[in-house]
Design a protein that fits this description.
By secondary structure, the chain is α/β, with parallel strands linked by helices. The chain folds into 2 domains: 3-257, 3-Layer(aba) Sandwich (UDP-N-acetylmuramoyl-L-alanine:D-glutamate ligase); 266-423, Protein-Tyrosine Phosphatase, Chain A, CATH 3.90.190. The protein has 16 helices and 19 strands. An 11-stranded mixed β-sheet has the order 4-3-2-5-1-6-7-8-9-10-11, with helices on both faces. It has a 6-stranded mixed β-sheet with strand order 12-13-17-14-15-16, sandwiched between helices. The chain has a two-stranded antiparallel sheet with strand order 18-19. A hairpin with a 2-residue loop joins strand 18 (398-401) and strand 19 (404-407).
């Protein structure tokens, strides 16, 4: 067990102690790197799910429209040629943040699209970065291991809107009004409500189509990324484009130009007669959205593989196991970032949720702790027209264990297993 974990367990309000330090460090780093955020127009994106994909859509849209735009997300950062983000966090430490922003600003970028976590907001890691537009994707229960209550979690995210000039808010989210009250000017979007409301939605395996009205204009949005959640993400990007004065065609073409985001609904095809999809989904809401995306058009069975991180959202493990079981024909529970927790105990919490939903061990529920072996099992069970969902890690390049970070990539392992299977 780490020193930090011991301190968090034993010192009341431990998390509050780090806020002054982070705020001071953020001020120092902004000064050291000559306030790089002030040299660009910054669009900050926060929320529980959909942050990364929304950031990529906005980044692609602005670049396609001729505006040099930088990007900083969980997956990658840069301007034209993106570099992988290796760190297991969305918003990096303040020095790395300012150092990268400086590089992006010095490249001549006009805009910066920045993915921002609740941790970063709670700790004031982005202090000194002027936010022109704040985007809220959705807010569901996550990171309560850190924030302790949902209110604290939501309030951390609200801090972004308190400093922003303009807000883009998902009106279908129950918390939308809290965010709206924090910013002087805003626009809402949604499927059920919102100023920008998606209409005539068509969901397909190859992407989504819908229409949205803005004043007297009607935009026809097309994406290469499937799923109902993509409607929300692209609506947010559309709202940003409209606020920044992009034309209807620039918005439509820019969103269509994004082909995929690593670790987000990535279909892996090595010539097999069934589908394999790798996705970063690791919260109850994200699980539901993934299943919602694949269930309507399915012809065969759904085989889902997932696990849970140690020291993270322990209260939702059984719930995620139950959601996975209710929406899958076969469930395989495996390791995720166990950190210093016993991965067997983590898996058992998920298994109990799956059993509650009616799954039976060694029949349609399997617990295989080794993640590569679990992926091999999932693929070996697949038949024609089945869908195999490999969830939880997405773009990540390592598994975090007690001994440290161990190299592991779901996409690479899936491709290796499929190629091996096809050669037989």
């Amino acid at each position: 067990m780490s020193v930090k974990t011991v301190l968090m367990d034993r010192i009341p309000n431990y998390n509050n102690l780090v806020i002054p330090y982070h705020k001071l460090k953020a001020m120092m780093m902004a000064h050291k790197y000559k306030f790089p955020g002030k040299r660009m127009r910054v669009i900050g994106v926060t929320g529980t799910n959909g942050k990364t994909s929304t950031c990529f859509m906005i980044w692609k849209m602005l670049n396609e429209a001729g505006h040099k735009t930088g990007l900083m997300t969980t997956v990658a950062w840069g301007v034209d040629k993106l570099e992988e983000q290796i760190e297991h966090m969305t918003t990096v430490d303040t020095e790395t943040l300012n150092k990268r922003m400086q590089r992006i600003a010095e490249s001549g970028a006009e805009f910066l699209v920045l993915e921002i976590t609740s941790h970063a907001l709670a700790q004031n890691r982005i202090y000194g970065v002027p936010i022109e537009i704040a985007v809220m994707t959705n807010v569901t229960h996550e990171h309560l291991d850190y924030h302790k209550t949902f209110k604290n979690y939501r309030d951390a995210k609200r801090k972004l809107f308190k400093v922003a000039k303009y807000g883009v808010i998902n009106e279908d989210d129950e918390s939308w009004s809290y965010f709206a009250s924090d910013v002087d000017e805003y626009i809402t979007y949604g499927i059920n409500g919102g100023i920008l409301k998606a209409e005539k939605i068509e969901l397909a395996a190859e992407g989504v189509k819908y229409e949205v009205r803005e004043a007297d204009e009607k935009l026809k949005i097309r994406t290469h990324i499937p799923g109902k959640f993509t409607v929300y993400n692209s609506l947010a990007a559309t709202a940003v484009g409209l606020k920044l004065g992009l034309t209807k065609k620039q918005i439509e073409d820019g969103i269509m130009a994004l082909v995929s985001v690593e670790g987000r609904m990535n279909r892996v095809n090595e010539g097999q007669d069934f589908e394999v999809i790798v996705d970063y989904a690791h919260t109850p809401d994200a699980f539901l959205k993934v299943f919602e995306s694949v269930v309507p058009g399915k012809k065969g069975r759904i085989i889902s593989l997932f696990g849970g991180a140690g020291r993270r959202d322990e209260s939702t493990r059984a719930e995620r196991g139950e959601i996975g079981a209710k929406n899958s024909d076969i469930v395989i529970i495996t390791e995720d970032d166990s950190r210093d927790e016993d991965r067997t105990l983590i898996a058992e919490e998920f298994a109990r949720g799956a059993e509650k939903a009616g799954k039976i061990r060694e029949k349609d529920l399997f617990v295989i702790l080794d993640r590569e072996e679990a992926i091999e099992k999932a693929i070996s069970l697949a038949k024609k027209d089945d869908i195999v969902l490999v969830l939880g890690k997405g773009h990540e390049k390592t598994i975090l264990r007690a001994e440290g970070a161990v190299p592991f990539e779901d996409l690479k392992v899936v491709r290796k297993v499929l190629k091996k299977m096809i050669k037989k």
